[in-house]
Specification:
By secondary structure, the protein is of the alpha/beta class. The protein contains 5 helices and 8 strands. It has a 6-stranded mixed beta sheet, sandwiched between helices. A hairpin with a 2-residue loop joins strand 3 and strand 4. Helix 1 (15-32) packs across helix 2. The protein is globular and about 65 Å long.
Length: 168
């Protein structure tokens, strides 16, 4: 049996859709702010963090580098490869005024780890799955736990042959 997602449990997201969804997230975050700094969870949080930082005019951007997916679709042990700098962790009572951004909260393992680092920060993701949803403060779209999201940076445009080949 293949571990590839079933066609009805795949959620492909284009660059345009991701940008629209991230801007929608920003509208919600504007009401929750103001924020003095953004911490993006790499790598998935880099793109939405850039969009949110521009829209909210936040200039202090930090990364926390965490690896949890070690190959396609297999989440393993979580490893912090680079933590958050002391300038951010000491900011106004353990992260108050800090916005944490990621593309997706899935099982919540990564979110839990970052929440431990910055317990007072506001946590936002573009997409959320049910297991991780309680750990984020703001998100835009919820998908089922067994849905696999194909982000635009994970895909490429390619030729799709006509459904009916042969030109009849």
């Amino acid at each position: 049996m293949s571990d590839a997602p079933r066609p009805d449990k795949v959620f492909p997201v284009s660059w345009d859709q991701f940008h629209r969804d991230t801007r929608a997230l920003t509208w919600r975050l504007h009401e929750a702010g103001p924020f003095e700094a953004i911490v993006c969870i790499t790598r998935g949080g880099l793109v939405p963090a850039a969009i949110v930082a521009r829209e909210l005019n936040v200039r202090i951007i930090e990364t926390v580098c965490i690896a949890s997916y070690h190959d396609y679709k297999n989440q393993g042990d979580i490893k912090v490869m680079k933590g958050v700098g002391p300038e951010i962790t000491s900011m106004r009572a353990q992260g108050k005024g800090v916005l944490i951004i990621d593309d997706l909260v899935d099982t919540g393992k990564t979110a839990r780890m970052v929440r431990d680092i910055l317990p007072a920060a506001h946590f936002a993701t573009v997409y959320a799955k049910p297991m991780g949803r309680p750990l984020v403060d703001t998100f835009i779209t919820e998908v089922s736990q067994d849905t696999w999201i194909y982000f635009p940076w994970d895909t490429a445009l390619s030729y799709a042959p006509p459904i009916r080949a042969g030109g009849d």
